[in-house]
């Protein structure tokens, strides 16, 4: 009772009267102690301070979470409940000039992994990894490596296995409820038409790798990207824009509700100047030539002289690009890399070969333009030239020869004389030969619209001095003027320069694409681009063309006389290596009066051009202007 009164008075700011204390004198000792020790002692004050600090800390934390970070955690909660699922955009189709599809999209499934949805229980993780590995026919250690290498909270999908089989997809779907974090991703793979023939042109697609991802920040690791050929160079047109589906998911990542869809935008279609039937015909005839010569490698390029469009580009042997688009096995990849004939090497744009006598029309045009010779200049060919102790032979004795006959019969002595000077004919010289080679596009990158092009080499005096440490000799002029020595070109360059001879002297940038047809139906034209023109007078070009026509009428390619149209050309036999082996070349254009096609054919190690490359050209042009027209 006294205690009750004490605390009451204490709250009211009062004390206890003396009488009350006296009356309380017979109480217990404990009560006396309570009266003698005030309640606001240091212990009570400490307890009160601790309580205040705890509640203050809680208040600060609540303020931080609800006010300062409220928006962040609110969004995080929504993200845990809602998610965006990518909808892959169909890739654009590639068509030849006649509307023939060279590639199509085939529906497929990828197995993917989303780390944030993966189980946090170690035992369940191991069970899921083993199950996924068993379903997909993978090593469980590989699957474990994929799951362990990712940020556990990441929502970015990671590829586990691409293009899985229908059976694997069905089993995966049946067991999906047991596989937290693993999903099937609906996608499409490319299926290429006659892949071994068109792979040097079309290329292929494959899954983007981490290195490529650095340059394509808007891609996911589950996306496909062009890896070679037109698929690579026109990636920005062909890819399209992925759509998105907004969904509500549960704690395991399973979709519970669709909250809206943003449809994908299809990739643009690519239309080419390429003639697929011509490509196949050239490939067929070259393969047939292999059976006769025992060779296994060749290349050919056909160009429209009117605008630089590539009508055909063949490199043999080729490879099946479907192997890559659908996920190549290590065994198949090893075979391709180990093949001594290098099927993945694009000989048409990357192979560098001595041009041999196919260079002679260029040297003739340069000499006429520089006025070191005239159309009437003659050289008496006695079968070779001797300079001091060095002999420069011809393949036969041609007698009195002018520039037209020299082209038609491929007279080496005439071009030795033009290139290095002999008797009363002044030397054109290597510097001027190189000047016109550059103008015609030899020894330099032309800028074709697929990757991998190389430049070849048209040397000059400074190149030899810097590279070999020797000065340039007259004999070097002789060799270079007939396309030997240090000269190297690509089949693309030869075809393009012959196209310029055919059209009267305009050098176009060679290209495949004709136009891009966009998703909205509009078309983006690929306009022809002129690299050089008007550097050879029409009269001088005309003389060279007449010489190439005589090649067919009375020279080294008379088998072309009975074609449905008049053709012109130039044979070439180019030595290489130290065993006197030769490449067989033939360059041509037709019809003579209004050329529609210019072509370069190379049979590697195939002997002389007139016995290998000429028959292939004849069969192709006979079909092109004969049977095909009918």
Helix content: 25-40%
Q: For the CA atoms, what is the radius of gyration?
A: 40 Å
CATH class of the largest domain: Alpha Beta
CATH architecture of the largest domain, by name, is 3-Layer(aba) Sandwich
- Strand fraction equals 15-25%
Strand order, largest beta sheet: 12-11-23-22-21
- Continuous helix count: 25
The CATH superfamily title of the largest domain: DD-peptidase/beta-lactamase superfamily
C-alpha termini separation: 127 Å
Task: Average the pLDDT over all residues and give the rounded result.
Answer: 87
Number of strands: 23
Assign the CATH topology of the largest domain: Beta-lactamase
Description:
This protein is of the alpha+beta class. It has 2 domains: 83-272, Alpha-Beta Complex (Penicillin-binding protein 2a (Domain 2)); 277-329 and 352-515 and 523-627, DD-peptidase/beta-lactamase superfamily (Beta-lactamase, 3-Layer(aba) Sandwich). 40% of the residues lie in helices and 20% in strands. Strands 12-11-23-22-21 form a 5-stranded antiparallel β-sheet. The chain has a 4-stranded mixed β-sheet with strand order 2-10-18-19, with no helix packed on it. The chain has a 3-stranded antiparallel β-sheet with strand order 1-8-9. α13 (276-293) runs antiparallel to α25, α17 (360-370) crosses α20 and α17 (360-370) runs antiparallel to α24.
């Amino acid at each position: 009772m006294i205690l009750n009164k004490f605390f009451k008075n204490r709250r009211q700011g009062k004390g206890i009267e003396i009488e009350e204390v006296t009356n309380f004198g017979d109480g217990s000792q404990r009560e006396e102690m309570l009266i003698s020790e005030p309640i606001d002692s240091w212990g009570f004050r400490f307890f009160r301070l601790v309580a205040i600090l705890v509640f203050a800390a809680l208040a600060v934390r609540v303020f931080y979470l609800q006010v300062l970070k409220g928006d962040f955690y609110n969004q995080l909660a929504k993200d845990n409940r809602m998610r965006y699922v990518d909808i892959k955009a169909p890739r654009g189709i590639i068509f030849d000039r006649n509307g023939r599809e060279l590639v199509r999209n085939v529906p497929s499934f990828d197995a993917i992994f989303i780390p944030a949805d993966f189980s946090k229980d170690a035992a369940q993780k191991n069970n899921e990894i083993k199950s996924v590995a068993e379903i997909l026919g993978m090593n469980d250690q590989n699957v474990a490596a994929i799951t362990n290498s990712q940020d556990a909270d990441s929502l970015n999908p990671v590829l586990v296995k691409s293009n899985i089989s229908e059976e694997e997809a069905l089993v995966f779907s049946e067991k999906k409820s047991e596989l937290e974090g693993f999903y099937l991703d609906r996608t499409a793979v490319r299926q290429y038409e006659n892949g071994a023939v068109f792979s040097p042109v079309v290329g292929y697609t494959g899954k983007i790798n981490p290195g490529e991802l650095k340059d394509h920040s808007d891609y996911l690791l589950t996306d496909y990207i062009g890896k070679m050929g037109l698929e690579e160079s026109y990636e920005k047109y062909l890819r399209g824009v992925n759509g998105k589906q907004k969904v509500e998911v549960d704690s395991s990542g399973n979709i519970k509700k669709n909250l809206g869809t943003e449809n994908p935008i299809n990739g643009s279609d690519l239309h080419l100047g390429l003639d697929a039937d011509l490509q196949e015909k050239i490939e067929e005839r070259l393969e047939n030539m292999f059976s006769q010569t025992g060779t296994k490698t060749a290349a050919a390029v056909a160009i429209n002289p009117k605008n630089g469009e590539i009508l055909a580009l063949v490199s043999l042997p080729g490879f099946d690009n479907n192997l890559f688009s659908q996920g190549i096995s290590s065994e198949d990849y090893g075979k391709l890399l180990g093949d001594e004939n290098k099927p993945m090497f694009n000989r048409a744009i990357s192979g560098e070969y001595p041009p041999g006598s196919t260079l002679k029309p260029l040297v003739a045009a340069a000499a006429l333009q520089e006025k070191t010779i005239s159309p009437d200049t003659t050289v008496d060919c006695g079968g070779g030239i001797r300079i001091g102790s060095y002999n420069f032979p011809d393949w036969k004795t041609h007698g009195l020869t002018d520039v037209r006959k020299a082209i038609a019969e491929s007279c080496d002595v005439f071009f030795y004389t033009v290139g290095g000077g002999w008797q009363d004919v002044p030397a054109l010289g290597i510097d001027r030969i190189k000047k016109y080679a550059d103008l015609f596009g030899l020894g330099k990158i032309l800028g074709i619209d697929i990757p991998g092009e190389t430049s070849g080499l048209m040397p000059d005096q400074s190149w030899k001095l810097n590279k070999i440490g020797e000065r340039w000799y007259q004999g070097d002029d002789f060799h270079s003027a007939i396309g030997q020595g240090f000269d190297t070109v690509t089949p693309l360059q030869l075809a393009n320069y012959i196209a310029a001879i055919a059209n009267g002297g305009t050098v176009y940038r060679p290209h495949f694409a004709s136009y891009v047809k966009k998703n909205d139906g509009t078309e983006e034209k690929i306009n022809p681009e002129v690299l050089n023109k008007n550097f050879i007078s029409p009269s001088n070009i005309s003389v060279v063309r007449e010489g190439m026509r005589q090649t067919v009428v009375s020279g080294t390619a008379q088998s072309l006389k009975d074609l449905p149209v008049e053709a012109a050309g130039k044979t070439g036999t180019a030595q290489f290596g130290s065993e006197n082996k030769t490449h067989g070349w033939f360059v041509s254009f037709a019809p003579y009066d209004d050329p529609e096609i210019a072509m370069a054919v190379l049979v590697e190690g195939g002997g002389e051009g007139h016995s290998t490359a000429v028959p292939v050209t004849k069969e192709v042009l006979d079909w092109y202007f004969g049977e095909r027209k009918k």
